[in-house]
């Protein structure tokens, strides 16, 4: 679905169904150098089980017009503006990695508009090593290869995503290269710097009033499980542990779906 | 950064797509000979059918054993996924019909396997898909042949029968300028010798019957997608970018930014045309794939020795092997195929068609049959078999001489192969009398 948000064209995948005028809504927010397609299996399920779905492409990613926004806070405002443009007062906010910080910040900025908050593959602070930032700046293709290798915990995650016969590492790499090549400038470095720079997590957590769920990959080396403990405490969050690397929705789509179902009570 | 987090080719050949079976602990990939798979509930069934969950429903569409094969080939090619098919021909057909229909046009290399040529020149034209053939070295010819309705450029990594080396970087650049993908038949090279995606190709297919399997027991094919071609930006492919009434108005490029082609190929192509691979076949080819790096190294080493031997023999007019300086694509092969040019090549015997027959019949280790890429060495004499209806002039026009012999060098001891060839060459010499 095409929308106009903050004066620019924006895209949100609606789960394979036309976006209804009313009903409960789930907003899916992708991570760095990704787009809505990391959510499509889950989003289709949710859309066909009583919810409206907005799986967004962030500004400058995929089908949404750039430029990319400069901070997690700005992206949180953009998500809230997109909900408004779609006629959605309140929604479950589901984010992965960088998207989880955006969801957290949005839930904090507009507590009345967040039915629940699901943070998958998350950590706070989400610091990025200087070495990776430097590689992202100087050699994005190599940085993509590094992140792709770190994000997958297995050579055989079944039943694969979006279905059998898909090679997850290849799919993730191709998506990141596509998003990077379509962008103006070095979007990979941009996204990683946003994650690294976000410093409002503690204050945001204090303002969140909705039920919160963390979905944690036990083999995640990008946002390791131990990095979520403090965040879980601050948010009084329910924590679901899944045998997976950072690419949770690809390595364990059914387990992530079950966690989301609990959060949105579907 | 090779290692467990980013494994290299040889490791992927053994492990990609496969893990110990969670139900039994079996380390080797189990063979799941089951047509269908039990749903956990009605809701689970509905969600599988509607692509809300990933999983297996019916083995024409996907199967756990076949999926291991698909994922492994995709990993070895550097792709995003693959679809196993009943044969290499089925893989080519699936690639074409996923993105082309009546009124579409293809530009293809003229140096193609005969079966591919038949499909393009005669059969698909009956369904309204037209093909223009260009010589693979004619770079300007590729560009000139493209039309507004062109959907695909197609070539073989090593062309048939002269081993023309496809200049993938240049041909793919021409394809991309025109907004169409390049599909490469990589059967002769396998990903161990060349990964066409790294050179610019968008789609790859194999006759898995050949080197991927290596044991000459099964027929199969596989189609791999790089995920790099931007179908939306091209604007030529409504099959992938517009709602598809055959699957709830799904827009494949919305469902998967990089995997739209494979989604449609599986959801429509396997569903409707049905040329799937048997899981038993997939299991057998997996046994071969595990040793692909070792076998290809030996295939190439043997082929080099045999090619050098033949090139120095007085009864041999020429050897068409790109590693030899005499081959017109020698320099290109050095750039694009640094690990070697495979183990299938042709050579020309001096003398008559009868001498060619005498040569073939005198061979003992080489098996006279219509296949390539077996672990055993193979031979065929086109003038007396595949092209026997042609007179000498027609053969010459096809690049085949009366004495042209095609070899597929296997894994035997190279010295034994050379001894077999020596004896057969003597027999051919005697047949001149």
Number of domains of chain A: 1
Q: What is the number of independent domains of chain B?
A: 2
Any low-confidence stretches of chain B, pLDDT <50, length ≥5? Answer: none
Strand order of the largest sheet of chain B: 1-7-6-5-4-2-3
N-to-C SSE string of chain A, H for helix and E for strand: EEEHEHEHEHHHHHEHEHH
CATH class of the largest domain in chain B: Alpha Beta
Strand content of chain A: 15-25%
* Through-space gap between termini of chain B: 62 Å
Distance between the termini of chain A: 23 Å
What is the oligomer described by this structure?
heterodimer
CATH level-3 fold name of chain A: Rossmann fold
Computed structural class of chain B: alpha/beta
Query: Count of helices of chain B?
Result: 19
CATH architecture of chain A: 3-Layer(aba) Sandwich
Which terms would index this structure?
heterodimer, A: 266 residues, alpha/beta, Rossmann fold, eight-stranded mixed β-sheet, 11 helices, 8 strands, 17% strand, B: 433 residues, Aspartate Aminotransferase, domain 2, Aspartate Aminotransferase, domain 1, 2 domains, seven-stranded mixed β-sheet, 19 helices, 12 strands, globular
Description:
The complex is a heterodimer of chains A (266) and B (433). Chain A is of the alpha/beta class and 266 residues long. Chain A has a single domain (2-264), classed as 3-Layer(aba) Sandwich (Rossmann fold). Helices cover 42% and strands 17% of the residues of chain A. Chain A has 11 helices and 8 strands. In chain A, helix 3 packs across helix 8. The mean pLDDT of chain A is 96. Chain B has 2 domains: 9-289, Type I PLP-dependent aspartate aminotransferase-like (Major domain) (Aspartate Aminotransferase, domain 2), CATH 3.40.640.10; 292-431, Aspartate Aminotransferase, domain 1 (Alpha-Beta Complex), CATH 3.90.1150.10. Chain B is globular, with a radius of gyration of 22 Å. In chain B, the strands form 2 sheets. In chain B, strands 1-7-6-5-4-2-3 form a 7-stranded mixed β-sheet, sandwiched between helices. Chain B is built from 19 helices and 12 strands. Chain B is an alpha/beta fold. The mean pLDDT of chain B is 94. Chain B has helices at residues 9-15, 42-49, 64-77, 88-99, 114-126, 139-145, 168-177, 190-193, 196-199, 231-234, 238-241, 252-255, 260-273, 279-289, 292-311, 330-336, 353-362, 392-397, 414-431; strands spanning 81-85, 105-109, 130-134, 150-156, 182-185, 203-207, 221-225, 316-320, 344-349, 367-368, 378-380, 404-408. The chains are: A alpha/beta (266), B alpha/beta (433).
